[in-house]
Amino acid sequence: MARNELRPIVTLRSTADTGYTYVTRKNRRNDADRLTLRKYDPLARAHVLFREER
Hints:
CATH topology: Rubrerythrin, domain 2
Number of domains: 1
Order of helices and strands: HEEEE
Number of helices: 1
Structural class: mainly beta
CATH architecture: Single Sheet
Shape: elongated
Strand order of the largest sheet: 2-1-4-3
Strand content: over 45%
CATH class: Mainly Beta
Number of strands: 4
Distance between the termini: 24 Å
Oligomer: single chain
Mean pLDDT: 92
Protein backbone atom coordinates (compact mmCIF):
# COMPACT_ATOMS: atom_id res chain seq x y z
CA MET A 1 0.00 0.00 0.00
CA ALA A 2 1.00 3.63 -0.46
CA ARG A 3 0.88 4.51 3.21
CA ASN A 4 4.19 6.37 3.34
CA GLU A 5 3.52 8.34 0.17
CA LEU A 6 0.09 9.67 1.11
CA ARG A 7 0.75 10.45 4.79
CA PRO A 8 4.46 11.18 5.27
CA ILE A 9 6.06 11.82 8.66
CA VAL A 10 6.92 15.50 9.09
CA THR A 11 8.83 17.42 11.75
CA LEU A 12 7.32 20.62 13.14
CA ARG A 13 9.86 23.11 14.55
CA SER A 14 8.99 25.98 16.89
CA THR A 15 9.14 29.51 15.52
CA ALA A 16 10.15 30.78 18.99
CA ASP A 17 13.76 29.65 18.32
CA THR A 18 13.81 27.22 21.23
CA GLY A 19 14.62 24.19 19.09
CA TYR A 20 11.59 22.26 20.34
CA THR A 21 9.99 19.93 17.77
CA TYR A 22 6.89 17.81 17.29
CA VAL A 23 6.71 14.80 14.96
CA THR A 24 3.42 14.08 13.19
CA ARG A 25 1.92 12.81 9.93
CA LYS A 26 0.18 14.95 7.34
CA ASN A 27 -2.20 14.25 4.50
CA ARG A 28 -0.68 15.46 1.22
CA ARG A 29 -4.07 15.70 -0.48
CA ASN A 30 -5.40 18.19 2.07
CA ASP A 31 -2.13 20.01 2.94
CA ALA A 32 0.06 20.12 -0.14
CA ASP A 33 2.22 23.04 1.03
CA ARG A 34 4.06 23.38 4.33
CA LEU A 35 2.05 22.65 7.44
CA THR A 36 1.72 25.30 10.18
CA LEU A 37 0.11 24.48 13.53
CA ARG A 38 -0.24 26.43 16.75
CA LYS A 39 0.97 24.17 19.55
CA TYR A 40 2.43 24.45 23.05
CA ASP A 41 6.18 25.02 23.41
CA PRO A 42 7.22 24.03 26.95
CA LEU A 43 10.55 25.84 26.69
CA ALA A 44 8.85 29.13 25.77
CA ARG A 45 5.91 28.32 28.10
CA ALA A 46 3.43 29.55 25.50
CA HIS A 47 1.47 28.50 22.44
CA VAL A 48 3.47 29.39 19.33
CA LEU A 49 3.44 28.55 15.64
CA PHE A 50 5.19 25.37 14.58
CA ARG A 51 6.19 25.12 10.92
CA GLU A 52 6.97 22.05 8.90
CA GLU A 53 10.65 21.42 8.39
CA ARG A 54 12.00 19.68 5.27
